Amino acid sequence: MNGRAFVYGWSNKGGGTLFAKHDMRLIEIYILRRIVVMFFAVLLSAVGITWIVQVLGRINFLTTSGQSFFYVLKFSSNLLPAAFPIVMPFALVIAVTQTLSTMNQDSELVVINAAGAPRSAVIRPVLLFAVVVSIASFLINNFVVPYSSMNMRQMVAEARADVINLVVQQGTFKEIDTDLYLQIENRDSNGAIKGLFVSDSRDKTTDLIYYSKDGLVVDTGNQSLLIMKDGEIDRRDVQTGNVSIIKFNTYALDLAALLPSDDKDVSIFPKDRPLTYLLNPDPNDKYFQQYPLRYQSELYKRLTDWMYPLVFALISLAAAADSRSHREARISASFTAITLCLVVFWLGYSTGQSTDKNASMLPLLFAFPILAAVSAAYALVTNRQVGVPVKWSNWLRDVFAAPQAAFAGAGAKLFGRKRGGQGK
Q1: What separation in angstroms does the CA of 70 have from each of 46, 66, 73, 163, 202?
Q2: What does residue 228 show for φ and ψ, rounded to 5 degrees?
Q3: What percent of the chain has pLDDT over 70?
Q4: pLDDT tens digits for 64-97?
Q5: 200 plus 138 within the same structural domain
Q6: Residue 417 lies in a domain
Q7: Is 225 within 8 Å of 254 (Cβ atoms)?
Q8: Of the residues 238, 262, 286, which one is the last residue of a structural domain?
Q9: pLDDT exceeding 90 applies to what percent of the chain?
Q10: Per-residue DSSP letter, 369
Q11: Are residues 205 and 250 in the same domain?
Q12: Of all helices (H) and strands (E), which one includes residue 261?
């Protein structure tokens, strides 16, 4: 039995006047099921697109690090948790408004109201699911995301620390850092290197060039050494231009010296910290000593971001919970709800970007979502429908009417030509 038949059958059973608790529970489950299915469809699609964009943004690192496919897959999986807290509120507002708008177009909301069902039959499942989404957002944002972020930074540091893997492509120069290049001619399965060339011009006063016929990477536990055999070191003074050449039979070079300065240690930022650390940061943390306000700003964001699914659910209900006549010339409830949610989210996000330098704006992180939630709740309690004014609706409809008609006319002509060609 489809949804529409279920609602009509239920209303006839109720006689249009009686509404049992069992019937209300059935209709709540029906609405909740449709919202959950739509929510996960939108969420997984949006997160998948976000994941692809994030991976493409790091494609240079992934293709030059010389790692296996499973390593790349593990690395890219650490990008997923950060996308969920951002996408979940918008997936919820789309799921709620689309479900309720469809039910209104199919006259299901009209049938529910005519049967004497209270408004809570529509509101309760939405708010219940919004609370679940808010709790999930809080847990992901405060515990899963910091763990995955730390894991990703550690993997990046380890991959960049393996300098030989960065240059595993034989016969090509690789820029390890600014003014630091490395090349190998050949590397066999045992790790032995043939034809090693290193050019280091990071010191503005001295240029260094290392060359050796053979080489081998040795891990001593505390450090990794590049053992070069049968080679020479060319040292050139930039100011005087004097060049000195040192030949050697064996020379050990610490690979840490070839790392970029910002990759020798894993940098940990406030957004990488779990909530427990933000509540009680280590006073000896150098980053905390330099930027204490950034830790406070991140803490306020963590304590407010989870509210947006619940706020967006209230806005969606205020825009689409009540049945509307098909004769009403208004912008769709989905457009209204998504627009309002975007405005609320933009206010919170832009404020969060400013709190790193201005502590007086921290209370606004709480004020915007709370004010939006109270306004939407007030609209629900007083039976006020949130929507775009009729004048604006008519203006927007007229703006898009001409292009839509032109597109439809072009399509009709093209379709007619095709049919005419087939007839000939």
Answers
A1: 24, 12, 5, 20, 34
A2: -105, 140
A3: 70
A4: 555 556 666 777 788 888 889 999 999 999 999 9
A5: no
A6: no
A7: yes
A8: 262
A9: 22
A10: H
A11: yes
A12: none
pLDDT value, residue 15: 44
Cβ atoms within 10 A of the Cβ of 423, count? 6
151, 230: one domain: no
Q: How far apart (Å, rounded) are the C-alpha atoms in residues 220 and 361?
A: 51
Query: From residue 405, how far is each of 250, 357, 383 by CA, in Å?
Result: 80, 51, 36
Parent domain of 363: 3-159+276-401
Structure tokens that stand for 376 in this block: 């939407």
Measured CA to CA in angstroms, residue 214 lies from 169, 236, 266 at distances of 17, 23, 32
Alpha carbons 304 and 34: distance in angstroms, whole number? 28
| Whole-number Å distance between alpha carbons of 78 and 51 | 10
> Does residue 37 sit in the same domain as residue 146?
yes
User: What is the residue-wise DSSP string for 381-398?
Assistant: HTTPPP---HHHHHHHHH
Domain-embedded: residue 408: no
Model confidence, pTM: 0.68
Q: How many domains does the chain have?
A: 2
Q: Model confidence at 398, in pLDDT bands (50, 70, 90)?
A: low
Mean pLDDT, residues 292-307: 91
Measured CA to CA, the distance from residue 105 to residue 326 in angstroms comes to 8
Measured CA to CA, the distance from residue 130 to residue 142 in angstroms comes to 18
Assess contact for 217 and 224: CB atoms under 8 A. yes
Q: Out of 262, 287, 316, pick the residue that ends a domain.
A: 262
Q: What is the distance between the alpha carbons of residues 386 and 6, in angstroms, rounded to a whole number?
A: 29
Nearest alpha-carbon partner for 252 in 276, 274, 225: 225
What integer is the mean pLDDT of 329-353?
Answer: 82
> What is the β-pairing status of strands 174-177 and 206-219?
unpaired
Secondary structure E strands in 341-417: none
Residue 194 has pLDDT above 70, yes or no: yes
